[in-house]
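Re: the request from the purification team.
They wanted to know what the chain is likely to look like in 3D before they choose a buffer screen. I agreed to run a prediction and write the result into the notebook, where they can find it.
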Amino acid sequence: MQFSKIKKRVLSFVTPSLQSRINLYATVDRHFHDGESRVWMTLDGEPFFKAEDLRFTLESDRRYELAKARLPEKPVRFTLDIFQSDWYKASSELNEQIERELKEEGWHANYDVQQDLLLYPTLSIEEALTHRHAFIRGLALLDRRVGKRRLERINGDTPFEFTCLKIRLEAESN
C-alpha cells in the first residue's frame, strides 16, 4: 500500500483538535546503500517522533560490541553446528535484549513503525491501548476514540507515549 494511503488512514483516527496540527512523513534515501528510510511525525511542523533504521541499527550494534565480551567463545569454524552452539544462543538472546531495551528507551526502527502503521487501523481502541508496541500505544493516545476522562488515568510508559499523552492533554485543555 502506498504511504499516502496509509498516512490518510492513520491520521483519520487523530482527535479533531489535533487533525490540522499533526502530520506524518516518510522518506527513503535512494543514494544510501540500502535505501535508508525514515518515518517521522510533526506537531505544528516540529518533529516529535522519528524512526530511522540506520540510527537504530548503529546503536544496537554499538551496544552489542560493548556486551559481547560476556558471550561464550565463538566457534572457530563456521559450519551448520554453529546454530546449535552456546555462543549462537547467547548472541541471539543478547540481540533480542538490546532491541527490547532500545524500544523501551524510545528508539524505533522504521521497519517496525511501517508495520505498526499498517496494523493500527485494524485494531480496536482497547487493543491499541494495550498493544505490545509502544508506537501503537502512543498513536492510541492521539486517537479520537479515547475520551478525556480515560486520558487522565493513563500513564505513558515510554518517551513516545509520554509525549503523545502530553500533546493530547494540552489539546484537550484548550
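For the purification team: Residues 63 and 98 are 7 Å apart (CA to CA).
Please add any questions underneath this entry.
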